[in-house]
Specification:
By secondary structure, the protein is α+β, with helices and mostly antiparallel strands. The chain is about 40% helix and about 15% strand. It is built from eight helices and eight strands, in the order H-H-H-E-E-H-E-E-E-H-H-H-E-E-E-H.
């Protein structure tokens, strides 16, 4: 960390930034204002509190510029100003960061289990989490076969016609699931999509009863999926795991065995996250 300089007069400009720093020319595609804001947040995270002049020196920006960024961060709830005019980070920043840690723990717990499941079944494995009114893939293990499901990490998929989405709704917080179902338009993606709300609620009841969900070509024609919930210590779904087959490789006589494999893998991930089937609500 740079040491304080006692020789600079109030109002002097901060030292010129090095090339590529948040205050310098931004690489192609980088938003300079965002880079500067994050540079200031990172400095706030490094110290209990910091004065405006010291912060200006550390990030290589003039004090009026830093002050405007601090006021913006304060308005958004990420920074606060103490009575002694020093600035500090708020707990809102901690909450945002802790959510990322939750997802990191989930990914690290899930990846080896998902890889084993992919090896056992030979098919594409996904894990998805709830994001607003959709599910988002956060993990994918490819099928061993040449003909496989086209998808990618980060892809958003609907809740009402995917096995992952059904599990997130069926095993999530009841009030949240009810609100999502009520607000959903149940759009038809294929002739097999459930589009009547009463029928979909009955489907969720069936998912809860048997402990896993089926996608019978409801989202994409030619693709069938089996999904199971990943539960937290309270027995609520924080994610869902699924296996996907092209219909010509899907053997209905093997459905129960394959569902058991997916449920077992999801349970292993759940237990790694603190779920205790004996003490909490067990999977049906």
């Amino acid at each position: 960390m740079p040491t304080k300089s006692g020789g600079r007069r109030t109002g002097d400009k901060a030292p010129g930034p090095a090339a590529g720093s948040p205050a310098g020319p931004a690489p192609s595609g980088i938003v300079n204002a965002a880079a500067r804001a994050f540079a200031i947040l990172e400095r706030l995270a490094d110290q209990r509190s910091v004065g405006l002049e010291e912060l200006s020196r550390e990030v290589g920006l003039a004090k009026p510029t830093v002050y405007r960024f601090l006021l913006t961060l304060q308005e958004l709830g990420y920074a606060r100003r103490a009575p002694d005019e020093r600035w500090a980070m708020t707990l809102k920043s901690f909450r945002v960061g802790s959510r990322a840690l939750d997802h990191l723990d989930l990914y690290e717990a899930a990846r080896p289990v998902a890889a084993e499941l992919a090896e056992a079944l030979g098919e594409t494995i996904h894990m998805g989490v709830l994001e607003e009114d959709s599910a988002v893939y956060v993990l994918k293990i490819e099928s061993r076969y040449t003909i496989r499901m086209h998808s990618r990490v980060g892809r958003r998929v609907p809740l009402h016609c995917t096995s992952i989405g059904k599990c997130l709704l069926a095993f999530g917080a009841p009030e949240a699931a009810e609100e999502l179902v009520r607000a959903s338009k149940l759009v038809a993606f294929t002739p097999g999509t459930i589009t009547r709300r009463e029928a979909f609620l009955a489907e969720l009841g069936l998912v809860r009863k048997r402990g896993y969900a089926l996608d019978r070509e409801e989202h994409e024609e030619g693709i069938r999926c089996i999904g199971a919930p990943v539960l937290d210590c309270d027995g609520l779904a924080v994610a869902a795991l699924s296996a996907s087959w092209p219909v010509f490789r899907y053997d209905e006589s093997e459905e129960a065995r394959n569902a058991s494999a997916v449920v077992g893998a999801a349970l292993r991930i759940s237990e790694a996250l603190g779920y205790d089937p004996a003490a909490r609500r067990p999977l049906p």
